[in-house]
């Protein structure tokens, strides 16, 4: 039963991180056509898309050390995505209202992944 719960959790988190990437692409597409939006937007999209890709790598880790290293990268990328959204908001590139839900999701992913990392020690 515990293995089924773990598989469900992993599967749900894979779906959630993929959805985070897809939602991030929509935010990127909504950016204004300015130099600063393009530069910040590309940084944001790189880190946001890394969340989903790196979490998939976490799920394929061959050892506890590899798991720890890869989940740490995923946490960093989620937090970096949050940083770039804060920059977009504070630099008035996009209104915070358009970013708030995705920012909340990034914060939640950081918390969930950090808890998972902590439980591996």
From TrEMBL:
It comes from the Bacteria. Gene3D superfamilies: 23S rRNA-intervening sequence. SUPFAM superfamilies: IVS-encoded protein-like (SSF158446). This is Four helix bundle protein. The lineage of its organism: Bacteria, Pseudomonadati, Bacteroidota, Cytophagia, Cytophagales.
């Amino acid at each position: 039963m515990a293995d089924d719960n773990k598989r469900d959790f992993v599967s749900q988190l894979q779906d959630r991180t993929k959805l985070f990437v897809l939602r991030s692409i929509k935010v990127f597409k909504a950016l204004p056509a300015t130099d600063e939006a393009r530069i910040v937007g590309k940084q944001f999209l790189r880190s946001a898309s890394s969340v989903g890709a790196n979490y998939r790598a976490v799920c394929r880790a061959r050892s506890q050390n590899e798991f720890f290293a890869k989940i740490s990268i995923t946490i960093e990328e989620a937090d970096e995505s949050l940083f770039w959204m804060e920059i977009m908001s504070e630099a008035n590139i996009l209104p915070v209202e358009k970013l708030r839900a995705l920012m909340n999701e990034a914060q939640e992913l950081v918390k969930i992944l950090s808890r998972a990392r902590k439980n591996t020690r």
